[in-house]
């Protein structure tokens, strides 16, 4: 039996937090000792506690690695729990948790990188990647490539592994849901889901909605999520006279409550490490329209959706219009997407690979 620690200090709930919780839960169910370090009051803390996983509450900032009391406190926890492997999430988690794990003698110090963004080749990063981290785990080839985009002097490519995210397809498909809207009038419904932050680029959907309205396509667009851009997005809806077309649903606890109301799923993100929400949309039988960026081609195939050039309203709208005019085709694409996810991202297979990697 091994002892694992998952350090993730994000307050909100997102794909990275979902990954940490599901892998921690899998290892816990396999009989391993598992500790989750999370911010007080965070979604991860509450969900891990509800699953019976041991949680240690910690407060970290970007400069916490300069505080010897914080580092020493983490060292004590890691030693007391006899942690063999630690998995780190944010940059601040890497700085504090990585250094503490090194001092505590943790065997495997793993940085799990889930965002397709370049890593600056600074001295501090070279120190962390070369002297602290044992290995890096990424969720897509695109994420691995972004780490290496500034050259191999940061880290050797051999230290970076790629294992996609997994999902329990049967549980998701069979999960009960309560539709957010009554769609008995067969209104053509578009759905988007995620944190309302710049990365997710939901403001792009406003001109798309304007274009669809101009083309005479009757539709409703449901945008699920909370975030810093909520006020901006709502004001853009009002400015463009789209109150009857676009509805903000707020945070969605069960994604199926939103997805099962829709005909098409939209993903305008500027980058993705691994599109968890796309996988969930495909399992819900929805065709996907997204940008041809990052790892989207890993989760959206030519039979399950469309990938368009980024930021091109006309091209994006063309694909939505095609799906509106071809209901049989969108059903076929939804079924193809569901089959693709089942065949490639089933959680049992993926989590076994992750567990073997972490134990390595």
What do we call the CATH topology of the largest domain? Answer: Rossmann fold
Considering the protein shown, what is the CATH homologous superfamily of the largest domain?
Answer: Glycogen Phosphorylase B
What's the architecture of the largest domain in CATH terms?
Answer: 3-Layer(aba) Sandwich
Silhouette? elongated
The biggest beta sheet reads:
7 strands, parallel
Strand order of the largest sheet: 3-2-1-4-5-6-7
Supply the number of helical segments: 15
Structural class: alpha/beta
Mean pLDDT: 95
Query: What proportion of the residues is helical, as a percent range?
Result: 40-55%
Q: Over all CA atoms, what is the radius of gyration?
A: 21 Å
What is the count of β-strands? 13
Give the count of structural domains: 2
Uncertain stretches: none
Report the oligomer: single chain
Order of helices and strands: EHEHEHEHEHEHEHEHEHEHEHEHEHHH
Outline:
The chain has 360 residues and is α/β, with parallel strands linked by helices. It has helices at residues 15-29, 43-50, 68-80, 91-104, 123-132, 141-147, 169-174, 205-214, 230-239, 255-259, 276-283, 296-299, 313-325, 327-344, 347-359; strands spanning 3-7, 33-38, 54-57, 85-88, 108-113, 135-138, 160-162, 189-193, 220-224, 246-250, 264-267, 288-291, 305-308. It is built from 15 helices and 13 strands.
């Amino acid at each position: 039996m091994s002892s694992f620690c998952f350090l993730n200090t994000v307050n909100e709930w997102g794909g990275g937090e979902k990954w940490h919780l599901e892998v921690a839960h899998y290892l816990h169910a396999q009989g391993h000792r598992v500790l989750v370090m999370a911010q007080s009051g965070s979604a991860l803390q509450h969900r891990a506690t509800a699953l019976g996983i041991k949680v240690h509450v910690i407060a970290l900032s970007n400069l916490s690695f300069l505080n010897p009391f914080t580092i020493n406190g983490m060292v004590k926890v890691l030693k007391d729990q006899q942690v063999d492997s630690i998995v780190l999430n944010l940059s601040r988690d890497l700085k504090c948790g990585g250094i503490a794990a090194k001092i505590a003698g943790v065997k495997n110090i793993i940085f799990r990188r889930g965002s397709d963004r370049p890593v600056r080749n600074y001295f501090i990063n070279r120190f962390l990647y070369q002297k602290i981290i044992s290995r890096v785990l990424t969720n897509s080839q695109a994420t691995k490539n972004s780490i290496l985009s500034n050259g191999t002097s940061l880290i050797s490519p051999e230290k970076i592994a790629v294992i996609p995210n997994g999902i329990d397809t049967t549980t998701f498909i069979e999960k009960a849901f309560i539709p957010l809207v009554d769609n008995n009038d067969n209104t053509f419904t578009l759905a988007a889901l995620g944190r309302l932050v710049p990365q997710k680029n939901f403001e792009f959907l406003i001109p798309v909605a304007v274009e669809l309205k101009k083309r005479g396509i009757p539709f409703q667009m449901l945008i699920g999520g909370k975030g810093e851009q909520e006020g901006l997005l709502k004001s853009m809806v009002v400015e463009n006279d789209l109150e009857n077309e676009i509805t903000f649903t707020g945070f969605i606890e069960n994604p199926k409550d939103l997805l099962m109301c829709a005909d098409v799923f939209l993903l305008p993100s500027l980058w993705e490490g691994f599109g968890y929400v796309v996988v969930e949309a495909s399992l819900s039988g929805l065709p996907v329209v997204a940008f041809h960026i990052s790892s989207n081609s890993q989760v959206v195939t030519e039979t399950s959706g469309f990938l368009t050039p980024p930021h091109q309203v006309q091209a994006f709208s063309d694909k939505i219009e095609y799906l509106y005019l071809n209901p049989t085709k969108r059903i076929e694409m939804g079924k193809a997407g569901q089959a693709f996810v089942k065949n490639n991202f089933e959680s049992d297979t993926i989590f076994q690979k992750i567990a073997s990697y972490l134990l390595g």
